[in-house]
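Possible regression after last week's pipeline update?

I re-ran a chain I had predicted before the update to compare outputs. Posting the input and the new output here so someone can diff against the archived version. Not blocking, just want to make sure nothing changed silently.
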Amino acid sequence: MRIWAAVALAVVVMACGSSRPQTAFSPTVTSATPSPVAIKPSLAGLLDRDGPPPASYASVFGGFVVNVQWSDVQPTPGAEIPTGNPIDRAIDLLHQSDPSGRQGLKVRLFAGIHAPLWAKSLGGAPIPVIDPVTGASGTVGRFWSAEFGSAYDDLMSKLAAKYDSAPEVREVTISRCTTVYAEPFIRDAADADTVQNLLAAGYTVAADQQCHRDQIAAHQVWRHTRSDLSFNPYQLMGGQARTDETFTEQMMELCRSVLGSRCVLANNSLRVPLQFPVMYDRIMALGPPITFQTAVLAKVGDLRATLDTAIALGAGSVELPGGFQEVEPSQLADYNRRLAGQAIG
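New output (post-update):
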């Protein structure tokens, strides 16, 4: 099945031209038009966020997440993606854990504090940041700058050239405008030192919002593969910290306008009761493909109720938290089936 899927996709690619862009990448946003090339199925069902699920649960999962740091795949400026990187290893693991070829991979790219030092140093010294919720910290680059954006565009072009036609890689995250985690709308605005450091380095809300637009445009090079964008109420910095959910919703609409069904609407902190009911309602209204990651087990509340909520919101896949084994495989099988029934093939 894997062989025939790869052959079929290769035929489509050869018929329509290389997935590598023929001219220099431009961040200009263009409206999505019907694509003449095949788009891989979205991920369907339950996903393990930390790699292959345990063997006793493998049959009730639709795939898993491979966590990839930018610094691991492009340690020097403009470098080609090395063979044997975390994505290659995850593909090998997928073949071992699922010989049928039914499951797929989500590539969660971590930029932010996990960008290579050379990218963090574009335009000035790396900037210290702290996540006020978890205490995780590190340094980031000027992700809002054109120079950093060009580096991210180059990374996307090289990753797409290598994996856009790989049937195992179903989805990749949009991660340019991030700090600690792969959640671009979080700015760690509750930490005064982080805010001061970013503003001193030249951060502005206007530049940041352009960053969000340009990171979506950068994923147009993924012609066969869907791109996940994780949404939260957008955190404004400067003056009194506050959120702007209207901007978040505008970016949902822009993502669908630019990428069409290749844009997967996501949120990485689903729990019961819902934190952001208005935002979730908008995600549901825009329709599939939709995916969620639950909050960590200690915060998720009732895991079964959270999965029921994800299904009610229209999700086709859900990443489970560590410790999901508190629910028996036979019970998770039903959730996997219901989610998969809502996924876009």
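Follow-up from reviewer: compared with the archived run. The longest strand covers residues 263-270. Marking as no regression found.
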